[in-house]
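Re: the 168-residue chain
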Amino acid sequence: MDEIFVEQIVKRKTGISVVLMRVFSIIVLIMAFLLMLMFNLGILAFTIEILLIYGEYMLWCYTSIEYEYSLVNGEFSVDKIMGQRKRKNIANYEIKDAEVIAPINSEQVIRGSMNAIVKDYSTGRKSEGVYAMIISNNDGKTKVVIEPNEKVIDALYHCRPNIVVKNV
């Protein structure tokens, strides 16, 4: 059997709630700086300002999310990357357990995803390149939403050509 190794990184779309959180935190940071200047609290104000800047930095890091898809010899894994540095493996799927891999709006996916648990690892945008994998395992049916590039789709097709439906 051929060894297959393919990986891809997709950046999650920043939602409106995240943008509002970031804007609110910047406003709080500016207000704290102005209050520090007005009341001249000395080292206490300086320490609070440093902590607020650190909190702002952490907020920006942990609201920047990417997913990495890896296909290694029939095992599809998804890693979550936060702030472009903290990586966590969040899912592993065996391609042999997949029923269908097709564009998300295809008839096969709609029919196969009834009563399935949905796991969304896509960018969050509505686009033509969004695919779904219907996986049956001990936990029941799972609909895994991904946004693979052509290289990943070809590798999935190479693993299980009878279940992969390519977008025409």
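Helices lie at 16-39, 43-62, 107-112, 150-159.
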